Amino acid sequence: MLRYRFSAEDFHRMAETGILPEDARVELVEGEIVNLSPVGKRHMAAVKRLMNLLFPLQQAQKALLQVQDPLRLSPESEPQPDLVLLAYREDFYRDRIPEAQDALLVVEVAETSREYDLGVKVPLYAQAGIPEVWLVDLLGHQVQVFRKPGESTYGENILAEGELEILGLKIPVKEVLP
User: What is the model's pTM?
Assistant: First the structure.
């Protein structure tokens, strides 16, 4: 099978010239353009719930919420996590795509994508040095928390119980799961 590899810049040029439709549900992972799973109602509700729970951090100008937008991890990887908590910037990243060092937290909501998220995306986030990742598993009705990034894995992988905490904000796990 012949595969073509692309950089993030190639990927954006394809979108700008119309090769990739504006509404295409794709992301760039290690130089390959990957189709994203369709988003179901439970998935959409979970993302909205997380936005609502994390919004106080944006109101307090401690962080910015980014929903299903690109996050540049490397010149060849630009996934679109369900939610990213970014370092606060007055310009709201107007002139550039947020990068790995800007991310305080990445959240992936898994309904049908759990294996892909765990096998592909979480290791990419670790390689890029994302300090914390939450995997909200809708089918397993649990939240996995990954911390202490290493070369391709996280040093800490726990099932969240009771509360999640980020930047001093405490969120009951039962409020994250629909």
Answer: 0.90
22-63 pLDDT per residue, tens:
777 877 788 788 888 778 899 999 999 999 999 999 999 999
Give the whole-angstrom CA distance, residue 96 versus residue 66.
13
In angstroms, rounded to a whole number, what is the distance separating the alpha carbons of residues 35 and 25?
A: 6
Strand partners, 32: 29
Contact 6, 33 (CB under 8 A): yes
* Residues 28, 112: Cα–Cα separation, whole Å: 19
Q: What tens digit of pLDDT does each residue of 121-148 get?
A: 999 999 999 999 999 999 999 999 999 9
Across the chain, the runs of DSSP E, i.e. the strands, are 26-29, 32-35, 63-67, 83-87, 103-110, 132-137, 142-149, 154-159, 163-166, 169-172
Q: What structural domains does the chain harbor?
A: 37-176 (3.90.1570.10)
Q: 7-15: long-range contacts (C-beta < 8 A, 24 or more apart)?
A: 7/31, 7/75, 7/76, 8/72, 8/74, 8/75, 8/76, 8/77, 8/78, 8/97, 9/75, 11/78
